[in-house]
Amino acid sequence: MKSPTLLFLTTSLLAILSLSPLAAADVKLKQAKVIIEHNATDSDTGFQISLDADGWQKLELTGPAGPVAEFQPLGQIEGLGMTELFLETVEPENSKMPLATILAKMPEGLYKFRATASVEGGASGEMTGTATLSHKIPQGVTLLSPKEDAVIAVADTKVAWSGNGLNLDGSKADIIAYQLIIEKDEEPHPRMVGKRGLSMILPANVQDITIAAVFFEAATAYKWEVLAIADNGNQTLQSGAFKTQ
Questions:
Q1: DSSP assignment of 105-174
Q2: In degrees rounded to 5, what are phi and psi of residue 130?
Q3: Residue 43's closest CA among 88, 96, 100?
Q4: DSSP class of residue 204?
């Protein structure tokens, strides 16, 4: 029979271990998203999956129809683990693959992320997260200015668009933000991620903004797009092009 002192020490140790973060059974991911992105200009549609966490070694994603994907660092980076993850599926043209067929690939409902936590180069504990996918997709905006293929002066320039607050199926969409992206129409530098340009997320009540002249270069082609972002995370982009004198 254990002595009262030994029994107290054993019970106290178990209590301490149960409070340790490494022993936690359900540490939440910082971010977990599964959304739809529709391109109204090119009429194509795909899915985006993203997450953020302090560190993980292996990740499994399951949905209403079963397993969706697995991710795992290998080789020399295996000991480091991963933090952020972002991927896009192929975006089939709606004329070649109807929207209903694309959406059937990932049914509406709850998607579950489950990862092995990576702590200082080692694996320990479990991290989880969930995301709810909706098939309601907002309609794209109408780009107002600059006009398509317009040639503008290198000066302070107002860019403007108009949204109608509807989904593709005609139902009401709750637009929570617009994302404006303007980039030089060029190949990115081989050692730089992305093209030279700007990106900003604006409140839903803002549908125009003036860009300072210092942003633009003379005799340069630009591409721009506006994404309408709904409260379910789904987004639709409309894109255009213009040049400077």
A1: TS-SEEEEEEEEEEETTEEEEEEEEEEEE----BPPPEEEESPTTEEE-SS-EEEEEE---BBTTSSB--
A2: -135, 155
A3: 96
A4: T
C-alpha dihedral sign at 180, 182, 188, 192: negative
The two tokens of residue 197 are: 């340009």
What pLDDT, in 10s, does the model give residues 179-219?
999 999 988 888 877 788 999 999 999 999 999 999 999 99
Rounded to a whole number of angstroms, the CA Rg of the chain reads 24
Collapse the DSSP code of 191 into the 3-class scheme (helix H, G, I; strand E, B; otherwise coil) and give the result.
coil
Rounded CA separation 17/188 (Å): 51
Count CB-CB contacts under 10 A for residue 216.
21
Tokens of 56: 């993980």
Quote the tokens at residue 99: 């929207």
The strand pair at 157-162 and 208-211 is best described as antiparallel
**What are the strands of the beta sheet with 27-28, ordered from one edge?**
27-28, 122-133, 109-119, 56-63, 66-71
Question: Longest C-alpha distance within the chain, in Å?
Answer: 91
* Residue carrying structure tokens 């900003």: 200
Q: Is 194 exposed, middle or buried (0-12, 13-18, 19+ CB in 10 A)?
A: exposed
Tokens, residue 234: 């789904």
At residue 178's C-alpha, the angle toward residues 175 and 182, to 5°, is 160
pTM strictly above 0.70 = yes
- Is residue 28 classed as helix, strand or coil in its secondary structure? strand
